[in-house]
Amino acid sequence: MNVAKVIVDVPASSINQTFDYSIPERFREMLKPGMRVIVPFGPRKIMGYVVDRVGESSFNNLKEINDILDITPVLTPELLDLGKWLAEDTLSLYITAFQAMLPQVLKANYKKELERLSNDSLSEELEAFFADRDHVAYDELENAMVSFSQVQKAIQNGDIAVRYLVKSRVTKKHVAFVKPAMEPHLLAEALEDMSGRARKQKEILDYFIDQNEEIELNKLLKKFETTRSTINALQAKGFLVLFKKEIYRNPYNDDAFEQTTALELTDEQREAIEPIKQHINDTEHDVFLLHGVTGSGKTEIYLQAIQDVIDKGEEAIVLVPEISLTPQMVRRFKGRFGSNVAVLHSALSYGEKYDEWRRIHRKEVQVVVGARSAVFAPFENIGIIIIDEEHENSYKQEDQPRYHARDAAIRRGENHQCPVILGSATPTLESYARAQKDVYKLAVLTKRTNEKAMPEVDIVDMREELHSGNRTMFSRRLKENIEQRIRRGEQAVLLLNRRGYSTFVMCRDCGHVKECPHCDIALTYHKRHNQLKCHYCSYEEPMPMYCPSCSSDLIRFFGTGTQRIEEALSQLIPEARVLRMDVDTTRRKGSHEKLLNQFANKEADILLGTQMIAKGLDFENVTLVGVLTADSMLHLPDFRSGEKTFQLLTQVSGRAGRHELPGEVIVQTYTPEHYSIELASRYEYLQFYKQEMQMRKKFQYPPFVFLALITVSHQNHVTAVQSTQEIVKRLWTLLQSESVILGPTPSPIARVKDRYRYQCMIKYKHEPELRTLINQVVRQFDDEVRKNDLQISVDMQPYQLM
Ligand SMILES: Nc1ncnc2c1ncn2[C@@H]1O[C@H](COP(=O)(O)OP(=O)(O)OP(=O)(O)O)[C@@H](O)[C@H]1O
Ligand SMILES: [Zn+2]
Ligand SMILES: [Zn+2]
What we know:
Blueprint: E1 3-8, E2 19-22, E3 36-41, E4 44-54, E5 67-68, H1 77-90, H2 94-100, E6 109-116, H3 124-130, E7 135-137, H4 148-156, E8 160-167, E9 173-180, H5 184-193, H6 199-210, E10 215-216, H7 217-223, H8 228-236, E11 240-247, H9 267-282, E12 287-292, H10 298-311, E13 315-319, H11 327-337, E14 341-344, H12 350-361, E15 367-370, E16 382-387, H13 405-416, E17 420-424, H14 429-436, E18 441-445, E19 456-461, H15 462-467, H16 476-488, E20 491-495, E21 505-507, E22 524-526, E23 531-533, E24 540-542, E25 555-557, H17 562-572, E26 578-581, H18 591-600, E27 606-609, E28 622-627, H19 641-653, E29 664-669, H20 675-681, H21 685-699, E30 706-714, H22 717-734, E31 740-752, E32 755-764, H23 770-779, H24 782-788, E33 791-795
Parallel strand pairs: 12-17, 12-18, 13-15, 13-16, 14-15, 16-17, 19-29, 20-27, 20-28, 26-27, 28-29
Antiparallel strand pairs: 1-2, 1-4, 3-4, 3-5, 6-7, 6-8, 9-10, 9-11, 21-25, 22-23, 23-24, 30-32, 30-33, 31-32
The structure holds adenosine-5'-triphosphate and zinc ion (2 copies).
């Protein structure tokens, strides 16, 4: 078994296969599938994953593996298998699938160097560039006077070469410690022999005679107000040893969480959890859809099911949307399971994430709570996988590999024969339809645990407000209610639904809208720097004084940002203390938590924010929820916009009146008659499901059909259109007659970063060979992709239709 099959780190479809390498003698014993290795590949050295060991290869003259990067495999056999499946299912490259399963720091990063091979004199520019050095970092080329063609020519002549240096980014944190080098009684003897002048040294020896154990160097220095040279002297005499110890960066202080115990379940909860416990006990797989209204105690069900899994000696994965991975959520899991929980989310530094991942890898924890990619936690005895708020779009990854965490979770649930729980107050139509067909088991919680009614929802028609002369963003009803809450010392949450609603700049004279010169999208106004920014390519320019089209000075920004609302609010209700929570105020680590704490401590009357406040928040004193613009995303070119509106309104309404005080919700809208808004205001999920299903059936959208989206982009408009046309033409000849191919059409955002984007959408019911066929068609463009910078992306489960 001296041949390794390796997936190399070259993200190109022509390289998407294993390569054989021979395993040199010195690695034969330790090398296992799932380890990262360094291998020669063409002229360079790159990182790769060993996926298998075999006896022989059908190729001669195999190259040898250069190095091994891991002592234990980073990918378990199950994850290797999952990665292969994931890549094939999503039409992604194997390498990107494996990379997606691991923390960032394990991805090797490459440095390039130019190496001088020849002593013959080079061109003047190159001589100046090398300046008597043999190696020069490739990056230096950028600022050098050498042209790339010169470099290329020198490479062709064999005068210089490009070298790839592989450097793994692993950064373990090491801290210096000190410990005694001998038994206390020997130290005591040494102490007696020591000269009286070495006072500090004597004190320290005295300390170690008492405390015969290691201590962090810094703590020791502080304790004795001394410097490192004292310790060095003691080490030189052989009394003490200095050593380095690896420590974990724990982003959470586990002692700070108040411990909780299991609550007595309500009848509904007991009925819902029973079959789940049964499956855990029997080591049996099934998918459960837990449909429970907000505040019905879904989380308590998760916690008690996980307790069973822990008692059985197995492990649990809990996925929550990034946006709701709030300190409150973490507290609930750490509160129950303490340091047995690892947390993975994007606000952690790379180092912290790596440390949490290693606690999982070493089986030091049994529970992981994390965002999407936590579904790949390297556990080997999984007893349950939970996806909270299963309807959230953030479970779908929007770049390669374009996977949905739900699919990966179910696949792992099958592998480990354990239950998978999908929880939501507003399940996706796809999941609910599966539960109706008994593909998933349905568990229902209809009541809040405190038996309190859901808060009353009031719909305010903003057109009427306008007609009666109110031009502000706040209806009279909302304003009165806010004022009343402030008087009573209660609190309010205000949601600005920002999706599809940005602050664009328009000329009031001629209607000209400022767009990004590289992307077909309106620029967004940022007040702080008085700049216009593109949210797709980061292009920026100052806010113009005059319209670039007609020179009018009536150029103004439109739309509504949280900043503007905050200003308007303080004019309207000057006594209100407002906390604003959006991407701008929560970018810094810990700021999210700080804002929530301030609100919990009643340092503000109003929490104003975007979607991120709609999830998971639970404040006793919140009795009013206001939705400023309920319909702003109803008109997006997306067949799910009605569903998303329903979900958001239901979620945000669930924030009010969760405790003793009754709650109220005010929803402002320009389309009060829309069924998504109307049914959400009455909490009629089932009715909404039925009505929306009719629409989907009529227009043939999921769950009645499956979709696949192919997007093609190129700098040249004609190339983009023609390539898409070509793809569509070939697909028509290959697919079944009931399948439909829509397009080519320009993507909803037709140009991004100076590339024109075209797309085609496949709607199908049954295409068992679809992935192979699409692959076949796309591969015919490999040459164009490589030489001509054509880009083709395939999404087998599109959510973002932009
Ligand atoms: N059996 C129970 N007895 C008493 N209180 C309970 C019980 N189960 C849950 N609770 C409490 O009820 C409240 C709501 O529960 P929880 O947050 O778990 O609901 P949820 O369905 O997850 O809500 P959401 O979907 O809104 O996040 C919490 O304060 C929780 O501690
Ligand atoms: Zn103008
Ligand atoms: Zn742009």
